[in-house]
Design a protein that fits this description.
The structure holds two protein chains of two kinds. Chain A is of the alpha/beta class. Chain A contains ten helices and 14 strands. Chain B has a five-stranded mixed beta sheet with strand order 2-1-3-4-5, with helices on both faces. In chain B, strand 4, helix 6 and strand 5 form a beta-alpha-beta unit. In chain B, helix 7 runs antiparallel to helix 10, helix 10 (217-246) runs antiparallel to helix 15 (344-364) and helix 11 (255-279) runs antiparallel to helix 14 (322-334). Classes of the chains: A alpha/beta, B alpha/beta. At the A-B interface, helix 2 and strand 6 of A face helix 9 of B.
Chain lengths: 314, 370
């Protein structure tokens, strides 16, 4: 048991009937990071989160949150953890303020402390002017903000948000991510599930989940490199045919080349674009080839993700 | 086409909630079975007392004739007590040990032999108007039959029946019905109201967020119980007060005792409802289960017919029902004027059942969303 991890799952498995929703999942989420759980719908993200929070019982395996075993001491875990479920789960027949007050009191604040904390959250999440509105009458975005406020009411060290940006308009999505980063700077560990790949770039580390299994884990960069076996650089040359680069250090493979009107465009797979780009250009120029343009090809997480899933499905 | 598509969809949906479906299908069969079990076979007997002040041969013949008489489709009389004085017989009815007592006067045998006029007495418990009316009619019929038989052997005689009523003179329909009305208000209504409370939280998913706070199943159960108690209590006392002070329903005992008993059944009903709530997956199921749970109470608790008249097997079921104890205590206080202390056993049974329901509910409520 290591105390550097906020969450550790060991062989976590959940079987519903004869369907394996989560299959031997081992995650190590470090303290103070924004960790993304990525995967298509039905991959087992929500089930994993619910097991981490003790909302459902694992078929096999265990979860530790800040070193505390969830199955044994769930209460202890709950005091350190905030949760924003995927779907709105607050009382629609209570007002924004009443919902917040209820949760503040349930987490053990006294009435005065609760009032202060609620004021603070209303301000922080821009809900002040709606505080007397019934939660059922809020717009989607406001509901999400209220849900986040409730998740944060007891100042948890770990916040787990399940698809916080699903069905949310772009400005609010941006606001959420800015807010998460701020929280993270204050030392809060954040676990977020999403199927928006562009958002996932904001995470410090990611785990890719597919059919209940982890198929990759690491920083966004590591995952992309894993998917393609390295970085890709694209070079436009004035040459009749593609040059030989195989012996240059760090070059793994020429992926494709295209001849056009006395020029050649090549895509080269290298272990690290930032250091190898210069050495490749130098090598070409020393061979007398004129390099018109050379740059790293930007790979989206989406491409990496699709590639990894295709490999997995094969 | 549109219609068939809709019909098809609804039937499919019904079939996919097996628990509810089973209840809907089982309900008629169960009700019928319970009804037959309770009312179909030989019913329970009506306990009566006999004070045979005479002791002569004819008096014994009369008693055996009475035992043979069936109480008009409600089973037969059972002489559970033999009294030696009028006062003793009277006391026995007053205490509720028997529904009626028959007094055979001293010198009865002699008077019959001599063909003189004789006086047979009956002491009736008016608090069960239904039964005492039947007992009286059966007694009259039996006596008439007996008179003919005896006349053939020993020659004619005349008899008079005089009646003495306790808790009477007569209990009006509305007086007798108050207990039934209160049963619905204090049992069925709060039970079905609270039965959906937890399943509603599950259905609306508020349960998922609620159980993320460090609360226990004790907190959830007790929180619901007390909240619903506060709301339904006002309603209860309003109804009771209205009946007594506006409609002048007769209450012989103390109003406070009546309130205490009402309060006990209210808490018990809410606890039972909470247990149903814990056991059901959704609101529809909870409603069905609440209604289902009310059926035995309606049939066997003395709600329709005094529980004593049911067949002996079913009487065991009666004794499990909170409503049985409530109705008994409520009627004793309201009509007979007994005190709460006289009904201590019933009150304790209600408290005991409440505790069992609550502990089971707390134990079974899992703080999970599976």
């Amino acid at each position: 048991m290591s105390l550097e991890y906020a969450v550790e799952t060991v062989n976590l498995t959940k079987v519903f009937g004869n369907f394996k929703a989560v299959d031997n999942l081992n995650l190590k989420i470090r303290k103070g990071e924004i960790f993304g759980l990525l995967g298509p719908n039905g991959a087992g993200k929500t089930t994993t989160i619910r097991m981490i929070l003790g909302l459902i019982k694992p078929t096999k395996g265990a979860v530790r949150v800040f070193g505390v075993t969830v199955e044994k001491e769930r209460r202890k875990v709950l005091k350190m953890t905030g949760y924003m479920p995927q779907r709105f789960s607050l009382y629609e027949d209570l007002t924004v303020e009443e919902n917040l007050m209820l949760y503040a009191l349930l987490y053990g604040y006294n009435r005065r402390e609760a009032r202060e904390r609620v004021e603070e959250l209303l301000k922080e999440l821009l809900l002040e002017e709606f505080k007397d509105r019934l939660a059922g009458n809020l717009s989607g975005g406001m509901k999400q903000r209220l849900a986040l406020a409730v998740a944060l009411v007891h100042k948890p060290k770990l916040v787990i948000v399940d698809e916080p940006t699903a069905g949310v308009d772009p400005p609010l999505r941006r606001y959420f991510w800015k807010y998460f980063k701020d929280l993270n700077k204050r030392g809060v560990t954040i676990i977020v599930t999403t199927h928006y790949m562009d958002e996932a770039e904001n995470c410090d580390r990611l785990a890719l989940i597919f059919r209940g299994r982890k198929i990759a884990e690491g920083t966004p960069l590591e995952i992309k490199r894993l998917a393609f076996g390295g970085d890709i650089v694209e070079i436009l040359l004035e040459a009749p045919s593609p040059p030989n680069l195989e012996d240059v250090e760090g070059v793994k493979k020429i992926l494709e080349s295209e001849r056009y009107n006395g020029t050649v465009t090549i895509k080269v797979l290298v272990d690290d674009a930032s250091s190898r780009l210069i050495s490749i250009v130098k090598r070409l120029e020393s061979n007398g080839v004129k390099v018109v343009r050379a740059s790293q090809v930007y790979i989206g997480l989406e491409d990496a993700f699709i590639k990894l899933i295709e490999e997995q499905a094969r | 086409m549109i219609l068939t598509a809709l019909i098809y969809k609804d039937i499919k949906q019904l079939l996919r909630d097996p628990k509810t479906l089973v209840m809907v299908l089982l309900m008629p069969v169960t009700v019928l079975t319970m009804f037959v079990a309770g009312y179909g076979g030989p019913g329970g007997s009506i306990p009566i007392a006999v004070a045979n002040l005479d002791g002569g041969s004819i008096s014994w013949q009369l008693i055996s004739e009475l035992k043979r008489a069936s109480a008009m489709g409600l089973g037969s009389f059972e002489v559970v007590k033999t009294a030696y004085t009028f006062e003793e017989a009277y006391e026995s009815v007053r205490k509720g040990e028997v529904y009626a007592a028959i007094i055979i006067p001293k010198g009865f045998t002699e008077e019959v032999f001599l063909g003189e006029e004789t006086q047979v007495g009956i002491i009736l418990d008016a608090s069960y108007a239904d039964i005492s009316e039947r007992v009286y009619r059966v007694l009259v019929l039996t006596m008439q039959g007996f008179q003919q038989k005896v006349a053939e052997k020993y020659g004619g005689f005349t008899f008079n029946i005089y009646r003495v009523t306790i808790y009477g003179p007569e209990v009006s329909k509305i007086d007798a019905f108050l207990g039934v009305v209160m049963s619905v208000l204090l049992h069925l209504v709060p039970m079905s109201l609270i039965a959906v409370s937890i399943s509603r939280e599950r259905e609306r998913r508020t349960f998922e967020q609620l159980i993320m706070t460090p609360i226990s199943s004790y907190d959830i159960i007790m929180g619901k119980l007390l909240a619903y108690m506060i709301v339904t209590m006002a309603d209860t006392f309003l109804t009771l007060g209205f009946a007594v002070y506006v409609f002048k329903v007769r209450v012989v005992g103390s109003f406070l005792d009546l309130m205490v008993v009402s309060f006990l059944i209210l808490i018990c009903s809410l606890s039972m409802g909470l247990l149903i709530s814990v056991l059901s997956k959704n609101q529809l199921q909870a409603y069905q289960m609440a209604i289902f749970a009310f059926i035995p109470s309606m049939l066997f608790s003395g709600f329709l017919v005094p529980a004593e008249l049911l067949s002996p097997k079913v009487k065991i079921v009666s004794k499990l029902l909170p409503l049985y104890y409530f109705l008994k205590a409520f009627r004793n206080i309201q009509i007979r004027g007994w005190t709460l202390y006289d009904n201590l056993f019933d009150a304790l049974m209600l408290i005991g059942e409440t505790i069992v329901f609550l502990l089971t509910a707390i134990k079974l409520l899992k703080l999970r969303v599976e």
